[in-house]
Design goal:
Blueprint lengths: L5 E3 L7 E4 L10 E4 L2 H9 L6 H21 L6 H9 L6 H14 L7 H37 L5 E5 L16 H8 L4 E6 L6 H13 L3 E4 L4 H6 L5 E4 L3 E3 L4 E4 L2 H10 L4 E4 L5 E2 L5 H4 L8 H4 E6 L4 E6 L12 E4 L6 E4 L2 E3 L3 H7 L6
Parallel strand pairs: 4-5, 4-7, 5-6, 7-10, 8-11, 10-15
Antiparallel strand pairs: 1-2, 2-3, 8-9, 9-14, 12-13, 15-16
Helix pairs in contact: 1-2, 2-3, 2-4, 2-5, 4-5, 5-6
C-alpha cells in the first residue's frame, strides 16, 4: 500500500498525487492534482484532511499555482490563487502557516526562480512533516511503555478520537504515531476507536490504518468512551489537534471536549499530540478566538456507506426530510483538561509557560 498520503507524480513534474480519503476504507483511489482549483477542492471537500496534511497539500497548491502562472494556463492572478487556498478550510492553522511560508519565499526571489523555489519548499515542508511526526512518536512512546511496565500482563488500552493517523499527515500520524512505534517495538497495545460522527473518520480511516498495521483495535460508538473509562478499560487518551493556542487550548474534531471531560472525571490521562506548526501563537483563548468550521447539514442528515451486494458507495438519509441540522466540525478543549501536549520536541504542560519551555524562541 502507498506509504505516504501525498507525493509528486514521477511522470508529470507539475502534478501531485493523493489518496482520495472519501472512498476509504472500501477503495484506495489515487487522484492527480494539477491546478490550484483542484487543490482547493481537495482540501475543501476533504479528499485530504488532517491539519498537517492540509498544510502540505496547500504548500503544493502554491507550487502548482506558480507552475500555472509560468505557463499562463490559469485566469487567476497570484493573489487570487493564494486567497483561494487560504479560504478552503478555516480551522486548521497549518493551512495558513504553509501558504504564508510559501508566499514569503516566492515573493523574495526573482520571477525566473519562483517556480523552482516553490516546488523545492513544498517538498521541504512535506519532508519536515514526516520528521516532526516521527519526533512525536518518539516523545509519546514513554507514556505507553510506562503503562506497560505497570501492567505487563495485558495490553495498554488507548482511546483516540477522529483520525490523527498517517492519513491525517504525510506519514506516521500524530496521535497514532506513538502507538505505531510502541507496536513496532513489541509493546502490546489495544486501541479503542471512536467512530467519530458525522463523517466517521474513526470508523472508516483509523480502523483501516490500524488493521493494515496489524494493531489490535475495537470500534466503538462515540458515546461509549465515558462508559469504558468508568470501568477501567482505558489507560490513556491520545487525540490530535487542528489548532492549539499559545495557552494550550486545543481545537480538534467535534466530540473531543466530551472525551476530555470524561477522562478528567475518571482520572484518565488525556494527551494531545500535535506538530509545532499546529500551534497558533497569536491566540490565547481557544473557545472565543478559534474559528469553528460549520459544515453542510447533509453530513448530519445523511450517511454514506458501502453496499455489499452492489459493491458501491451509497448515500442514505437518516433524518426526517423536514428536520434541520447543525454541523460544527470542531470543538475546543480547555487547557485545564489536557494532561500534556506531545510535540516533536517532547511533552510539555498545556500552558503558555509549558510551551515556552520547549519552544523558548517563542517566549517574549
Amino acid at each position: 500500500m502507498q506509504k505516504r498520503t501525498i507525493w509528486r507524480d514521477a511522470t508529470k513534474p507539475d502534478t501531485v498525487e493523493i489518496i482520495d480519503q472519501r472512498r476509504l476504507p472500501h477503495e484506495v483511489s489515487i487522484v492527480n492534482l494539477s491546478t490550484v482549483e483542484e487543490v482547493e477542492q481537495a482540501i475543501r471537500d476533504m479528499w485530504v484532511r488532517g491539519a498537517p496534511l492540509i498544510g502540505a497539500t496547500a504548500a503544493y497548491g502554491m507550487a502548482i499555482l506558480m507552475s500555472q502562472l509560468h505557463k499562463q494556463n490559469t485566469e487567476l492572478s497570484y493573489e487570487q490563487g493564494k486567497q483561494l487556498l487560504l479560504h478552503s478550510r478555516p480551522t486548521a492553522v497549518n493551512l495558513a502557516w504553509a501558504v504564508q511560508r510559501m508566499d514569503a519565499a516566492i515573493t523574495q526571489v526573482s520571477k525566473e526562480e519562483q517556480v523552482a523555489i516553490a516546488w523545492a519548499l513544498a517538498d521541504a515542508i512535506t519532508e519536515e512533516d514526516v520528521s516532526i511526526c516521527r519526533g512525536i512518536a518518539e516523545a509519546g512512546l514513554p507514556l505507553i511503555r510506562n503503562i506497560h511496565q505497570q501492567y505487563p500482563q495485558r495490553p495498554v488500552n488507548i482511546l483516540t478520537h477522529c483520525n490523527a493517523g498517517r492519513m491525517a499527515t504525510v506519514e506516521w500520524g500524530t496521535a497514532t504515531a506513538p502507538i505505531y512505534l510502541a507496536h513496532s517495538q513489541g509493546i502490546p497495545v489495544h486501541v479503542w476507536v471512536d467512530e467519530t460522527r458525522p463523517r466517521n473518520q474513526g470508523a472508516s480511516i483509523t480502523a483501516w490504518e490500524l488493521a493494515d498495521a496489524g494493531i489490535p483495535h475495537t470500534l466503538i460508538a462515540d458515546n461509549a468512551g465515558g462508559h469504558l473509562m468508568q470501568h477501567g478499560s482505558v489507560d490513556l487518551v491520545i487525540v490530535g489537534s487542528d489548532r492549539t493556542t499559545k495557552t494550550g487550548d486545543v481545537a480538534n474534531k467535534i466530540g473531543t471536549y466530551l472525551k476530555a471531560l470524561a477522562a478528567h472525571d475518571n482520572a484518565v490521562p488525556f494527551y494531545v499530540a500535535l506538530p509545532s506548526p499546529t500551534i497558533d501563537w497569536t491566540l490565547s483563548n481557544g473557545v472565543d478566538e478559534i474559528p469553528i468550521e460549520e459544515r453542510s447539514q447533509r453530513e448530519i442528515t445523511h450517511i454514506t456507506g458501502w453496499e455489499e451486494s452492489s459493491q458501491q458507495l451509497l448515500e442514505l438519509r437518516l433524518s426526517p426530510a423536514g428536520s434541520p441540522a447543525a454541523n460544527p466540525a470542531f470543538d475546543v478543549t480547555p487547557a485545564r483538561l489536557v494532561t500534556g501536549l506531545i510535540t516533536e520536541r517532547g511533552i510539555c504542560e498545556a500552558s503558555e509557560a509549558g510551551l515556552w519551555e520547549i519552544f523558548p524562541e517563542r517566549a517574549p
